[in-house]
Amino acid sequence: MRRILHATDFSAASRAAFRMAVSLARRERAALLLLHVLTPPSPFAAPGGTVPSSYLALLQAARGDAQRRLAEVLRRARTAGALARERLVEGDPADEILKLGRRWRPDLIVIGTHGRGGVSRFFMGSVAEDVVRRASRPVLTVRGR
Predict the structure, then answer these.
(1) Which of 24, 26, 32, 47 has minimal Cβ neighbours within 10 Å of its Cβ?
(2) How far apart are CA 75 and CA 82, in angstroms?
(3) Biggest alpha carbon–alpha carbon distance for the chain
(4) What is the DSSP letter of 2?
(5) Is the pLDDT of residue 145 over 70?
């Protein structure tokens, strides 16, 4: 393996997948790309179609928080000996993971799964399941504890 893509949402499931991705990257001496997809909150347009400044402030705060958290994940990966870099994008998580997978062509995508089932999965969906179904690259799912 030369390239590994790890998508994180900073959850416990993602932390388990992160440990696996770092371990594989170190063992294989592969480049590790850490990806976080920020899903912006829906804006509520004011009369006239303008977006309130409070929404813009909320979005900016969310970006800053995501960037700080991703920088910490990058620091941990590098401290563990992985050749890692990070990328923050905005959009639909599954679509953005798949888009980057097509562009960067990793040998493996590592993603956490929350292990939801039944009604919970029906209402919330599963990013990991969507990625597994649609990916052109191999995907390793890691269940969080």
Answers:
(1) 47
(2) 10
(3) 56
(4) -
(5) no
pLDDT mean over 104-122: 76
Residue 29, sorted as left (phi over 0), alpha (psi -120 to 50) or beta, turns out to be left
The 10 Å CB-count burial string (b at 16+, else e) for 1-39 is eebbbbbbbbeebbbbbbbbbbebbeeeebbbbbbbbbe
Domain edges within the chain: 3-42+52-143
At residue 122 the predicted structure's pLDDT band, cuts being 50, 70 and 90, is very low
CATH homologous superfamily of 3-42+52-143: HUPs (3.40.50.620)
Amino acid of residue 13: A
Query: Averaged over 64-77, what is the pLDDT?
Result: 97
> End-to-end CA distance of the chain, in Å?
26
